[in-house]
Amino acid sequence: MMHFLRFFAIILNIQTVLNQILETLQQLEPKAQTNEKVWMDAYEVKSYFNIHRSTLYRWKREKILCPAKVGRKDMYLRSEVEKVIKESRLQSFFNF
Questions:
Q1: Rg (CA), the chain
Q2: In sequence order, what DSSP letters do the residues of 55-70 get, joined into one string?
Q3: Helical (H) or strand (E) element with 39
Q4: Each residue's pLDDT tens digit, 79-89
Q5: Which residue would you say has higher pLDDT here, 43 or 25?
Q6: How much is the pTM?
Q7: Per residue in 35-79, pLDDT tens?
Q8: How far is 48 from 54, CA to CA, in rounded Å?
Q9: Are 67 and 76 in contact (CB under 8 A)?
Q10: What b/e sequence results for 49-81 when a residue is b if at least 16 CB atoms lie within 10 Å of its CB, and e otherwise?
Q11: Which of 4, 15, 63, 81 has its CA 20 to 30 A from that of 36?
């Protein structure tokens, strides 16, 4: 009987954790579906996508990425950067 109670307690704990995960995912889902434009500065782009600053500046110079100027800062659309990175990784994969 003692083993059954432990097993039941473990099942309840797992169910609680799974419910918390489900609630968190449901809260995140609407944010992912919105077509909200997310702008990032050069530092955020370099950090978030783990690319070197020379790569970012080369893409800017070669017009692969066209940032918007906000004051003296270059601001990049995250969706555009993601697209360029996906394309460059695919290209490097096939040009081995």
A1: 22
A2: HHHHHHHTTSS-PEEE
A3: strand 39-41
A4: 998 888 888 76
A5: 43
A6: 0.55
A7: 678 999 999 999 988 889 998 899 899 998 999 999 999 999 999
A8: 15
A9: yes
A10: bebeeebbeebeeeeebebeeeeeebebbbeeb
A11: 63
